[in-house]
């Protein structure tokens, strides 16, 4: 089980991620935009591989060339370090 983060740490870690934003009190999200549908799907496939490695999977919404990722630790009812770790890994290791 992962511990829920305190508000101060959530704000700090959200700031460190850059373009990620809070979605309510229990999630972070980011919308990625691509040239076309094929590029968007390629990105989603890379995110899926990373998520499987972490055993922590984002909610994914695909709209032609736009992909919205939402991370939350549903089992804990809010944000944990795992959400920010996965978001950070997406930012560092996936080309977009």
Q: What string gives the helices and strands in order?
A: HEEHEEH
Largest sheet: 4 strands, antiparallel
CATH class: Alpha Beta
Q: Which structural class is indicated by helix and strand composition?
A: alpha+beta
Radius of gyration from the alpha-carbon trace, in angstroms = 13 Å
Distance between the termini: 31 Å
Please tell me the CATH architecture by its name. 2-Layer Sandwich
Average pLDDT level: 96
Q: What would you call the shape?
A: globular
Number of domains: 1
Helix and strand layout, with pairings?
Elements: H1 7-17, E1 21-23, E2 27-33, H2 37-54, E3 59-63, E4 66-71, H3 81-93
Antiparallel strand pairs: 1-2, 2-4, 3-4
Helix pairs in contact: 2-3
Keywords for this entry:
96 residues, alpha+beta, Gyrase A, domain 2, four-stranded antiparallel beta sheet, 4 strands, 44% helix, globular
